[in-house]
Amino acid sequence: MGVVAAVLVVAGAGMWVRHEQPSFCGAICHTPMAEYVATYDQAEGQAGVDKYGNEVESTSGMLAATHKAEGEDCLSCHIPTIGEQVTEGMNWITGSYQYPLQERAASDLTEARGVEQDQFCLNGDCHDVTTREELLEATSDKDFNPHETQHGELACTDCHKAHRASVMVCAQCHDDEAEVPEGWVTYDESLDALPGNNA
């Protein structure tokens, strides 16, 4: 009986460690996530591909690659609750999901945790800033501060993308002022990269 219990404990611990690995996300439960894991597996600052298979000049505009370079893994950002895991598991078993997976906003990623969408990024664990005001101050040295809210407050995920090139939304109107960082794309280029738009 003791041997069986020990085997179960070791097997459970091994499965938990395996569950924490990014390769697990695209291997067993989340088959449609293989492209997402592939974006994570790319080296930062190199030419690569996004989750839609589009070529990107530099993976430095994809948070999956930059966060991996900082030692983070999938569960650093995707912190599922048990209820969320059960729901996603049932969707996978029944095939009731979109492919490619629908892009999720920060509010979608924090809803199950019961926190505000800003807390997905501005939480103290990920960045030194925890409020919009601190974020605005942190980027105040830029000639064109992309975190100014003169046109209303955008969600972080409107610009910062994990598995495709991040989007300099401001360049939609301020193309002469808003610098597009390395690996990022303009708003119009981001539309071209969406499935069905690049025929």
Write the layout of secondary structure elements.
Elements lengths: L1 H18 L2 H8 L4 H8 L6 E2 L5 E2 L6 H7 L4 H4 L4 H13 L11 H6 L20 H7 L17 H4 L7 E2 L16 E2 H6 L7
Parallel strand pairs: 3-4
Antiparallel strand pairs: 1-2
Helix pairs in contact: 2-3, 3-4
Q: Can you put this structure into words, describing what you see?
A:
With 199 residues, the chain is mainly α. The chain is built from ten helices and four strands, in the order H-H-H-E-E-H-H-H-H-H-H-E-E-H. The strands form two sheets. A two-stranded antiparallel ribbon has the order 1-2. The chain has a two-stranded parallel sheet with strand order 3-4. Strand 1 and strand 2 form a beta hairpin. The termini are far apart. The model has no long low-confidence stretch (mean pLDDT 81).
Helix content: 40-55%
* Helix/strand order: HHHEEHHHHHHEEH
End-to-end distance: 62 Å
- The total of helices stands at 10
Largest sheet geometry:
2 strands, antiparallel
- Could you tell me the number of beta strands? 4
Q: Outline, from the CA principal axes?
A: globular
Strand order of the largest sheet: 1-2
Mean pLDDT: 81
Rg (CA only):
19 Å
* Uncertain runs: none
What structural class should be given to the helix and strand makeup? Answer: mainly alpha
Strand residue percentage:
under 5%
Short note summarizing the structure:
The chain is mainly alpha-helical.
Fill in the keyword field for this structure:
199 residues, mainly alpha, two-stranded antiparallel sheet, two-stranded parallel sheet
